[in-house]
Structures are given as structure tokens and as C-alpha cells.
Amino acid sequence: MNNKMLTSTFQIQKRLRMEQIIQLNELAQNYKGKIYFITGKKNVVDASKLPSLIAFLLTLGHNYELKALIDGEQTDDVLEKMEAVCSLKERKQYKAFSLQQAVKVKV
């Protein structure tokens, strides 16, 4: 199969949640190619390296452009999956919940 290189820019409105970052990392680890994110200072972050990915994505604020470089097979499919993970629709799957206060009971 042919390897190809694809570059894309994502418009991220809100900071990605940890679950989304982990999904991106798992996608990169299971991909038979490489996925990189390029920072504004032209530094390259390997998406398969979870500590680097977390450090990079958690430092970004709201309303930013995330530039990705995908190198390998079926780059269009991987791009679609990445867009789905980064979308606001994906964020809505993670609903906030609150813990109830502990109740003391005498036995």
C-alpha cells in the first residue's frame, strides 16, 4: 500500500478533555504510521507518546488551531477519526456528575 503524508488544521473551541487526549493517543499507538502535532513554535509532538501529548494539549487554551501531520496508510480515515474525537459532539458524551455526600449511620 502507498504511504502518504497529510497535514490538517483543527479548530478547537474548548480545551480537550483527558478522555479525548487518551483517545488521540490510542489512535496514534494503534495506527500503522505516525501522527504528530505541530506547535506554533514549530516543535513536533508525537501523538503516540502520552506524557508529551498531555503536556502539549493541556497547555493550550480555548479557541486555538491544532495542526496535525499524519504519515502512513489510509490517512483520510485517520483524519476523520481524529476530527470526531476533537469535535464538540464528542465532548457531550462525557456528562458531568456529582457525588453525593456521605451519610453517617450508627450501627
From TrEMBL:
This is HPr family phosphocarrier protein. The lineage of its organism: Bacteria, Bacillati, Bacillota, Bacilli, Bacillales. It comes from the Bacteria.
